[in-house]
Amino acid sequence: MIEIQNLTKSYGQIKAVDDISFTVEKGEVLGFLGPNGAGKSTTMNIITGFIPSTEGTVKVCGYDIMENPEEVKRKIGFLPELPPLYMDMTTYEYLNFVADLKLVGKNQKKGQISDVMELVKLVDVRGRLIKNLSKGYKQRVGLAQSLLGAPEVLILDEPTVGLDPMQIIEIRKLIKALGKQHTIILSSHILPEVSAVCERVVIINKGKIAAIDTPENLSKGMGSVSKLSATIAGPKSSIVSSIEEIYGIKYVEPHIEKDSDVIEYIIESDKETDIRRPLFFAMAKAGYPIIELKSLDLSLEEIFLQLTTQEKEVM
Ligand SMILES: Nc1ncnc2c1ncn2[C@@H]1O[C@H](COP(=O)(O)OP(=O)(O)OP(=O)(O)O)[C@@H](O)[C@H]1O
């Protein structure tokens, strides 16, 4: 649905985007993550046709943004970080105005505005001036304008920034619902948001792609092992040998002695094998109670930091 190939954008000596390639499948919700200045907005602005690339290609639904900019723009709904709202218009007037800009046909306009207001829950504020709406409602108006013209693709730049927790939950729900009918690229600094909403994540740093994977796989870490901490009561050597017999175990080590016979063990296993159930049954069979069991896989936040701060640590 979206194909980005060898995309580069230079501003003089600075490469804001440096040879990035990725694709987004139809119906996918893709998260776009990166620290400040990583190149997220630049990439989104190129995909939406606001600025040209220096090198590389962007295709949306098979159309090249350079060769068929109008076709591409028709396929994309864009919610910039600061939606361009006209404060002295009512919600309805503004949506009507945007529908005209997007050349929505006269016969469809009324129905489309009603549908979008229904979907984004704006019906109650249709007659209110935008300047009198709360930040959350203003953001919904921004989302509503991106949906007019029935685009197949939505590009959402930091859609929940500045909202309160209730509003964040509502907008996330809405994005999830929109994901059923649209292909979405969503940029965010909020990592749990990306885990909650996106099926795949692109992490970008200094203009380059640092990782592309599902949030789950990223959390499992880059290596081939999964790590667990298990605190178990019982004799150490017998527990270690029982654990070593479990299929998929790579390594087990007594870590911290918590009590005379209670020890925390660090257990590494194949990334593909979830050993929590076999571990439970093995310990239950041997009569050694598991007091605590937790994953030591990295959180998405830790992965993100690891991928985006490596050079600083070296310095
Ligand atoms: N018009 C411009 N002229 C010169 N440099 C620019 C221009 N636009 C962006 N840059 C530079 O390109 C780099 C990437 O910027 P970009 O806005 O794409 O990052 P971002 O990931 O969206 O950051 P943020 O999360 O802070 O919005 C930065 O170093 C920025 O200073």
From TrEMBL:
Origin: domain of life: Bacteria
UniProt keyword Ligase present: no
InterPro entries: AAA+_ATPase (IPR003593), ABC_transporter-like_ATP-bd (IPR003439), ABC_transporter_ATP-binding (IPR050763), P-loop_NTPase (IPR027417)
UniProtKB keywords: ATP-binding, Nucleotide-binding, Transport
Gene Ontology molecular functions: ATP binding; ATP hydrolysis activity
Domain ABC transporter positions: 2-231
PROSITE patterns registered for this protein in UniProt: ABC_TRANSPORTER_2
Nucleotide-binding is among the record's keywords: yes
Family statement drawn from the similarity comment of this UniProt entry: Belongs to the ABC transporter superfamily.
PANTHER family according to UniProt: ABC TRANSPORTER ATP-BINDING PROTEIN (PTHR42711), ABC TRANSPORTER ATP-BINDING PROTEIN NATA (PTHR42711:SF5)
Protein name, as recorded: ABC-2 type transport system ATP-binding protein
UniProt organism field: Ruminiclostridium sufflavum DSM 19573
